[in-house]
Amino acid sequence: AFVVGDDFYVVGEGVFVCCPVGDPERIRPAYPKKGYVGALLEDVNKRHGSGLPLRAFGYEHLAVRGATMNGQRLSIDLDDGNNFYGVTLRAHLDLPSGNFSIEWVHQPFVRIWGWNFGWNIFQPEPVVAANTEVDVVVGSWRYRFRDAEFMRTPANQAVPNSWTPDSRSVDSIWGAAAIDAALRLDGQVYLFIGDHYVRTPGPGQLGDLSLARAIDGAWGNLPATLRQGVDAALYSGGALTLFRGDQYLRFPIGGPEPYEISTVRYDIVRLTTSTAATLNQRLFAGGLPGLLDLRTQEVDELPRFSPNASSTTTIRFNPLRVGSYPIGSHLDFHSANGIYYWEVFFHAPFLIASSLNTSQRFDEARRWYEYIFDPTATPDVWKFLPFLGADVEALAAAIGDRLTRLATAKVDLSTVDSELRAIAAAILAMDMAFQGERDLSSAELTTLQGYANLTNLRGRIGALKTIDPESAALVRDLDELAGLVERLAPTWAAMQTSQAQLQVFLDDPFEPHSVAGLRRIAYRKALLMRYIDNLLDWGDMLFSQYTRESINEARMLYVLGWDLLGRRPIPLGRRVLAADTSYGGLRDPSVQYDFLLFLQAGLDPKHSQLSFAAKAPQTVTWQSYFYLPENDELVAYWDRVEDRLYKIRHGLNLLGVRQPLPLFQPPLDPMAIVAAVAGGAGLA
């Protein structure tokens, strides 16, 4: 720091500021300025010297080590890396004439090394002087600087005996000059200072810039050029652009942005499993029904993860650094082995059932479908855990069922009953949202987030006293259901995937499993439709036999399918189509599909009802050339069931031809059976 006329200069690493002598802690307009000794000399010469261009001297890029004014002559010590050897490179500028010179200066031996042989040859310096690197009088104040600290005393006061730095740091007053760019990410404001940065403590607060850290190694998703410093940052249209010299890098909206590594919250993913032995035991002891049973999917995964405690089977983690962690109370369908769990408990039974249906082995196909979905086992219709966790109506019904059965078994539920029933009622009110009919309100989102940690409640559930194995199993079910409630908040967040769904559709529109992986309700709908297909195909086979016994069986199958379908959707009329247009008229300036553009831009995914379960009626008001048509395949189920029941009630056969129904089924011919067996046919 030095004073020239009425200017007080404070010089930092690659940056300097100029303040008025009368107010030395107020930075003048047009400052800070970036640069090293060359830029500093040009600025001083322009304000207080001849104003003529200075001659090049080859050291303009060096940092300033010290500066003093001697009359009208400014002397600046340069940091060229050789100061350790007692030689200093010093530049001199005569302000009135603009004459410039540079020289090597040899420092006194003792002052460089600071040796003291124990003899009182050298007078010891006061504590303040020993700690002072820069001492300058500015107006009526004397400033003494040491590293990031400074000490301010009246200029006419003697040197104090003790070093008492100001409570403020150098950077907090003059350090703002070093800020190259300010960046807001995830609610935090970051200030970039050369190749360093600092995170501000809060809104409107600068903080202590002396705490700046190196960018390199502390930031992710930032190329090497920007790790050397950021000259400017710009938000335009929601997209972040960073500048460095004559280059810039733009981060697209919705894409990955730079992030501070120390603030990253990691997702813990389970890479291994300890359940193989248990699954083998269930298979060998109970066969396929035992393996595919819902209770098998409730086998605990070890180790568990907890933010509160650790044990021999529980790993404790820092909740500030972890975004999500694996569930431990049942099979982890989101782990590295999750795809295999999906194959075992969903895809394999689904495929086998579909193949059996194609072979007209309808009863066997029904049994395989019911390993996943059993409409006759209310309220536990879902036998596949991920589907149960996303069906809040079934989840609420299961909680109520377990409480009722435990109360019937005389189990004391006073510690959990009211709270669990309140939870069941609250999530049941969100059923339409989880079906994609509406969005969750802010109050409902808050409620779900409050259910994310039910450790206390689950502890009370585990402490319930039971007297028989059946009641103990119901208590375990209740604890498992509470665990599923805890996962509803992340389940809802995972459903908000409209952006990803559109991208997957554009990348590969003919791969339904890619979209269904993001929109899991598609799997549930497909399973229900296949189950109804199997019932109706089975009924058609029995109806075609046209006997009293087979028609009665067919009618029961049709009625079951009718019950599963529910009420027929109410027709909303015909949609008036937009005027015909050419292909060129369909194109949007953003070169996107008009239909997908409306999905993506016309309906905000955060507030859209189309996040994971779009429906045709929701597209009626779209100002889009294309729209979602009615699902003719789904509506055809009601037509098919109504047609079959009408024919049965009016004495028509499967083809719609009136045909008398025989009183009895024709008798079996024993010889025909013998001939069939001899020919290799079965008895079915």
Rg, Å, rounded:
39 Å
Q: Which of globular, elongated, flat, extended, rod-shaped describes the shape?
A: elongated
Classification by helices and strands: alpha+beta
Task: Describe the sheet with the most strands.
Answer: 4 strands, antiparallel
Number of domains: 4
Mean pLDDT: 83
The strand order across the widest sheet is 1-2-3-4
As a percent range, the share of helical residues equals 25-40%
Strand content: 15-25%
What is the number of strand segments?
Answer: 24
Q: State the end-to-end CA separation.
A: 102 Å
Number of contiguous helices: 25
Model description:
Helix 11 (392-408) runs antiparallel to helix 12, helix 20 packs antiparallel against helix 21 and helix 21 packs antiparallel against helix 24. The strands form eight sheets. Strands 1-2-3-4 form a four-stranded antiparallel beta sheet, covered by helices on one side. It has four domains: 2-164, no CATH class; 179-264, Hemopexin-like domain (Hemopexin, 4 Propeller); 274-489, no CATH class; 496-684, no CATH class. The chain contains 25 helices and 24 strands. With 684 residues, the protein is an alpha+beta fold. A hairpin with a 7-residue loop joins strand 6 (73-79) and strand 7 (87-94).
